[in-house]
Amino acid sequence: xxxxxxxxxxxxxxxxxxxxxxxxxxxxxxxxxxxxxxxxxxxxxxxxxxxxxxxxxxxxxxxxxxxxxxxxxxxxxxxxxxxxxxxxxxxxxxxxxxxxxxxxxxxxxxxxxxxxxxxxxxxxxxxxxxxxxxxxxxxxxxxxxxxxxxxxxxxxxxxxxxxxxxxxxxxxxxxxxxxxxxxx
Length: 184
Prior knowledge:
The protein has seven helices and five strands. The chain is of the alpha/beta class. It has two domains: 36 residues; 114 residues, Rossmann fold (3-Layer(aba) Sandwich). Strands 2-1-3-4-5 form a five-stranded parallel beta sheet, with helices on both faces. The longest helix has 15 residues. The termini are far apart.
């Protein structure tokens, strides 16, 4: 049977997204042309390929997630992966400071828990970030105790744990310079 011919047993897989179907079509474009594809199908494949090429790329700005609990850090990183920021996870303030020393100009958001592995806590990190990297949006979180307003730098935002994903996304949007995200 000729490649691409459909049998009665074949069906479209509903679990595939249009993007995945488009990628598959685009990857077979050269083979399809060689077999003599109707022009309207070829035009559709070119259109899908062009829309994929126009997909916006990440800005190059970073979101630094500083959390000693690996599972919580992974959730925050996965959430921030859906934004214009590229997340980098650290389990300690010392590791975060190393990233800031190397790439501080690229860091748009520092999202830090108060209790961290290492010698420094999140409040000490927040004070260092406020002083040395004031362009970074600073968000401090904790589920252990309320934070006195005077314990945080003036520009820091406090979000209690458990935080809501929308609160994190809002802070990421503000850090990326996008304003408030639209609620679903």
